[in-house]
Amino acid sequence: MASEAMISQRVRAVPGPSVDLRRKPPADFIVFGGGLPDPVTHPVADLGALMAEILAANDQAVMGYGFSTAGDVMLREFIAARAGAGMGADNIVLTNGSSGAIGLAALTLLEPGDVVVCEAVTYVGALKAFMQMGAEIEIAPMDAGGLDPEGLAEALERVRAQGRRVKLIYTIPTNQNPTGATLSLERRLQVLRLAEGAGALVLQDDTYGGIRFTAAPPPLIALAPDRAIHLGSFSKTIAPALRVGWAAASPEIAGAMARSRVDLGVSHINQRVVARFIDDGRFDRHVAAATALYARKRDLMLRALERHCGKLAQWNTPEGGFFLWLKLTGADAEAVLTAGEHEKVAFLPGPFFSARTPFRNHLRLSYGQVAEGDIEDGIARLARALAAAAQG
What we know:
By secondary structure, the protein is of the alpha/beta class. The chain is 43% helix and 15% strand.
């Protein structure tokens, strides 16, 4: 068709997702799929009351286009204060979720032929954003501790030897998606030193970093403010529908990101709702309560896996976030997914997250959205699917 011929080569070259995350599953399925917060944690009453107050005030800065493409100054100051490293509002750009921050960073920083080094399994939306800007993807290996600095060094040297330029190292060092791993302080410092040697920036995706069961090492931007860009979101800690995320960077990069945008910014009403939610202390109390719920759900899932899947898989124990990463001992993840249709259980297979190597014997389980009361039954269903797939 003539209309198809008009689509840019960049967009046509980027593969679509192998799994439709937005397809509503049948009501009798137990779903361990998406990285979504539990609906019971949505602070509906608080958000509704704040929204009503803000609308009633009819503030021009809120009801109009706002006075800054970088976003609400009040909210940017709150985020900067929490980021530390002497940051202020000029270091912060508000975005449409952290995915919007990734897209804006790619638009601002990448040129065709630039290389982005990514972890072996990662957030596929980031890969899509980089590839649409004409960047080339290189892979750095991972182990149980997350991004492997020795493997990263080898990847950087390989690119250098080929005469290509590494512009970004994209990493999810805290509560990694999909593995749940958290990079140690020592490794964070190694990654930053390697980035400096390569003349590259480190793009830290911290989408799930706000959900922690133990203290996390400092964010990369706190360790090297001029070498790192920090991306965050309120989607997992408040509600995805707000679509409020941010990028923290040097004033030069933050300013360039603000100038690059064509969307005139995030909803100013939603920005102000979040700012007010933080200002009166409700945000911190809300996150503490939600984190306690996710810790219980993680532990329920770990105990259920021990009971039902001990001989069928191996898994990690995450220190935060929503995910467990399973390595299967005798089955292919795609075959388990097919068997899961019969058992009425769903998850995301390893290849969904793979930038290059298939990871066909891995899968990701999420305890974020699933109800506490469904975890035991869901893992029992998964065990039956694993056993069926292993038998062929």
